[in-house]
Design a protein that fits this description.
Elements lengths: L1 H16 L4 H10 L7 E8 L2 E12 L5 E4 L5 E4 L4 E4 L1
Antiparallel strand pairs: 1-2, 1-5, 2-3, 3-4
């Protein structure tokens, strides 16, 4: 386990040193973002329960919030726990 952990740390360290900036990290992250630019069903906390709405997944910002657009094109941001993506 020790050797695997050392190898993992070295690998992460190597890749982080080769990234130019936070913006490059974000661009690399976006390449693998699940359902990017697709319609998702999102359950949003609404009072005592949830309401389900359809949104287009646009991005994840630097604070970890998902950025979505509703059918009218309005953009909204949700933190972890404020909404849940239906699979």
């Amino acid at each position: 386990i020790h050797n695997v952990l050392i190898s993992l740390i070295e690998n992460v360290h190597f890749h982080l040193q080769n990234l130019d900036s936070q913006f490059q990290i974000h661009a690399n992250f976006q390449k693998y973002l699940w359902r990017l630019n697709e319609t998702i069903s999102l359950r949003i906390i609404d009072g005592d329960g949830f309401k389900r709405e359809q949104f287009k997944l646009i991005d994840v910002d630097f604070e970890g919030r998902i950025l979505v657009a509703n059918k009218s094109g309005d953009q909204l941001k949700f933190h972890h726990g404020q909404g849940f993506i239906d699979l």
